[in-house]
Amino acid sequence: MSATILIVPGLHGAPPEHWLSWLEHELAGSQRVEQDEWNEPVLAHWAGRVKRAIDRAAGPVWIVAHGFGCLAALLAACDRTDRVAGALLVAPADPERYSADGPISDGEDGRTRHPSISGLLPQTPPGFTTLLVAHDRDPDMRLITASQWAERWGSRLVLSSALGDVDPALHTGPWPQCLRLFRLMHHAQRDLPLGSLAEDTEPAPRRHGWLAKLRRQSRATL
Predict the structure, then answer these.
(1) DSSP run (H or E) holding 206
(2) What are φ and ψ of residue 217, in 5° steps?
């Protein structure tokens, strides 16, 4: 069974010189998840796009995501655990920096500050393999915070220094160590476990899934 690899960029997308674009060209069967507004990170919108891409994909689904795309991809994948084999999450965005409607301004005081999306994200392992790559000098996500999320999601934590000591947010061009990490994960997992595969090709909507929970608590609509 052929697998589909979904490439999920983060804020501002991934231009041609970005390492994620290079990775996409190196991986056969990869498809990029496009967003309507790359500069407007609204979790419900972004996760909805990822979920639809999972539903349309052929065979088991693997995910390679970056930045805010990691949060959207994980949220969507948790509603489709029977389709997803694994995910490589590179330098996830800090959920505390975002509300359900977009970035939280540093100028907002505690009384008027919008609640972050931290409580809207999965708090337990999703049921498929995840690797989380963190940069130990990332100004947007402290390493201790990244490790806490990795523990909640049951992710194996990998420092970017083990992959060539690059900053994923700034790195452009080839990143062969990251490609090798994904291929090792894919080879070890062999597209399994995938849970139960239903005979229906169109999955039934889940009223109480993670994305449904987000819709109920957000003004954003899909």
Answers:
(1) none
(2) -105, 5
Residue 45: φ, ψ to 5°: -65, -50
| Cα separation, 93 vs 10, whole angstroms | 8
Q: Across the chain, how many H-helices and E-strands are there?
A: 6, 8
> pLDDT tens-digit profile of 191-206?
555 543 333 434 434 4
DSSP for 143-205 reads HHHHHHHHHHHTPEEEEGGGGTS--TTT-BS--HHHHHHHHHHHHHHTT-------S-SSPPP
Phi/psi region, residue 127 (left: phi>0; alpha: psi -120 to 50; beta: rest), is left
pTM of the model: 0.85
Strand partners, 84: 61
Give the span between the Cα atoms of 191 and 103, in whole angstroms.
Answer: 35
